Amino acid sequence: MKIPPAPVDLSASDFLTRIMPDKRLAEPSYRQLTNRLRALIESGEIADGQSLPSERTLAEMLALSRVTVRRAYDELRAQNVLDTQGRAGVIVKAPPRLTPRLGKLKGFTEEMRELGMEPSARLLERAVAQDRTIASMMNKPSNTHFLRLLRLRLGDGIVLSRDLAWYDLSAAPDMEGWDAEDSAYQFLTERCGIALSHSEQTVEAVLSSPEECAAFGFNEPQPCLLMKRKTYARSGQIVEYMERTFRGDVYACRVQLAMP
To answer: CA 218, 220, 225, 227 torsion: positive or negative?
Structure first.
């Protein structure tokens, strides 16, 4: 049997070794194959536009059933990682990696437009609530009311992040009437009359929660980036606290460093 051309940066034998399911594991073979192929695609070892073996060919090469390979390929198609293009066969669609520049106070809407993408939002939960932990974090009395929003943020129709945000209604009461579809920072500035000063932000690596897996279309926890941000008005008040989880397969941080 003729082995098809190896993907970029991998020999044919290395390719098969890297994706071969381990039958000693309890995890189903199709799931192992799905995850191993996706890992190679996300790392760039299998390039965007690269052809993969057909279901039948790969099943023979790995001594697996064709149903197993088909299920793995179907999973990757559902995740928008593979495409089938007639005679061209199975084609890799590596997700573009977004690399917004850090260092300036920008919201998701501004970031996406800067990257040439169309931003949108999907509201999951909206409530006016009291939260003692958030109040303490924002140096407010425990009975302070906050606008609590849970949203999915999309770029060009693709879910990129899951955002949980709190806005201080004692500082910005008009936020209660915000439709949560456009830029929060623009609304705070133009409608609430608040001059924003700066934010304090941390970024850490996490595994996606069950809710995030459902939002991002993951079958199991995957690496993500968790951004925690406090946004300050020029008065010194904290007007926003946000926890934003970005899917790690499409998002990376870019920072420009200057000499001291």
So the answer is: positive
The CATH code of the domain that includes 15 is: 1.10.10.10
Tell me the pTM.
0.62
Count up the domains in the chain and report the number: 2
| Residue partners of 122: CB distance under 8 A and separation at least 6 | 151, 152, 154, 159
**Alpha carbon 104 to chain centroid, angstroms:** 21
pLDDT in tens, the chain (260 residues): 333 344 444 677 788 899 999 989 999 999 999 988 988 887 677 877 788 888 999 999 999 999 999 999 998 888 778 887 655 568 887 655 555 555 566 677 777 787 777 888 899 999 999 999 999 999 999 999 999 999 998 888 888 899 999 999 999 999 999 988 888 888 999 999 999 999 898 989 999 999 998 888 887 888 899 999 999 999 999 999 999 999 887 776 666 666 77
- HEC string for 33-68: HHHHHHHHHHHCCCCCCCEECCHHHHHHHHCCCHHH
For residue 124, give the H/E element and its range. Answer: strand 119-129
How do 146-155 and 119-129 pair as beta strands?
antiparallel
- Among 55, 90, 125, the domain boundary falls at 90
Q: Name the DSSP class of 9.
A: T
Q: Give the domain extent around 18.
A: 11-90
User: How many Cα atoms within 13 Å fall on the side-chain side of residue 90?
Assistant: 22
Last residue of a domain, one of 24, 55, 90: 90
